């Protein structure tokens, strides 16, 4: 035990994050903070004071500082964070996004605090890129916690100290997900339809054009419908691809929705056709907790979420034939599909539980001390 800890009995942790997203996006992180407090850690969180989980964290004795960096480099943010570090006698500074990480590294320079960073996806970190030494590759960073093994392996290949890079899955709890299945009739989908959900913002790496190409092979299934949920669905190129599909009238664009979980729960299967740079996709997890059989590409941490052909189907990225074959299999084998969905729900509970995340994070803190 260091002299510093002779003077105080608890680990002191300052976290910097942004909680301006939806409840389900923020909850795993916020509940980890709450869980660490229950384990005896003093946790202070810099985030939006009016965020969706601020009240719950305060009630659980997480101290909230109403502040979140808005620029990747801000002298005022650096001064603010450094002042808190100097007055708070913290053991650890844990930063969760690039804006927080860059400012945190500068703020902690020369102070007796260990910096931890969070890495949520693969790609875009290179040892030859000097800007990466402002974030995860900074020599002052004691530990990088990655959301999945694929993220960890990807970063270790670039990190000068790969032993500092570890995996802690972002944990969940089945009781958090109580949404009732939505009525898909608002989209003109008949009640007896076999509906495949795809929840992804329309970005090139999400692979939506590959999914639409696969739809050409699936038009022979008369009751099959696609429900596309996410931003950017009004893109002219995407709409043109939908018009060209023989399933065009059975491809429905919901756009960005706050009630995405209830829409997923009303579907029979889900697909995430990503091409690259996935972490541990929340949309796949939401499908699994509602017992909806997932189809995922083998990129990033997606494939770690499921066991192939037991709790979902893993396919090759960028392959429309794989997508069509997987969807056709699930459509034609309802019994196996239901079993996969049940197994998917059980797998989240057993392998991606928030209590596991809390214990593993605490173990890393104790080891670093």
Global structural class: alpha/beta
Reading the helices and strands in chain order gives HEHEHEHEHEEHEEHEHEHEHEHEHHH
Residue fraction in strands: 15-25%
CATH top level label of the largest domain: Alpha Beta
CATH topology of the largest domain: Rossmann fold
Helix fraction, binned, reads: 25-40%
CATH superfamily of the largest domain: Glycogen Phosphorylase B
Radius of gyration: 22 Å
Low-confidence stretches: 1-7
Number of domains: 2
CATH architectural arrangement of the largest domain: 3-Layer(aba) Sandwich
What general form does the structure show? elongated
Average predicted local confidence, pLDDT: 96
Primary descriptors:
six-stranded parallel β-sheet, alpha/beta, 2 domains, elongated, 14 helices, Rossmann fold, seven-stranded parallel β-sheet
Task: Please explain how this structure is put together.
By secondary structure, this protein is an alpha/beta fold. Helix content is 38%, strand content 17%. The strands form two sheets. Strands 3-2-1-4-5-6-7 form a seven-stranded parallel sheet, sandwiched between helices. A six-stranded parallel sheet has the order 10-9-8-11-12-13, sandwiched between helices. Helix 2 packs across helix 14 and helix 10 packs across helix 13. The longest helix is centred in the last third of the chain and has 18 residues. The N terminus is likely disordered.
Question: What's the topology here?
Answer:
Elements: H1 3-6, E1 12-16, H2 23-38, E2 42-47, H3 54-59, E3 63-66, H4 75-88, E4 92-95, H5 98-108, E5 114-119, E6 141-146, H6 149-156, E7 165-167, E8 194-199, H7 208-215, E9 224-229, H8 236-244, E10 251-255, H9 260-265, E11 269-272, H10 282-289, E12 293-297, H11 302-305, E13 313-315, H12 320-332, H13 334-351, H14 354-368
Parallel strand pairs: 1-2, 1-4, 2-3, 4-5, 5-6, 6-7, 8-9, 8-11, 9-10, 11-12, 12-13
Helix pairs in contact: 2-14, 4-5, 7-12, 10-13
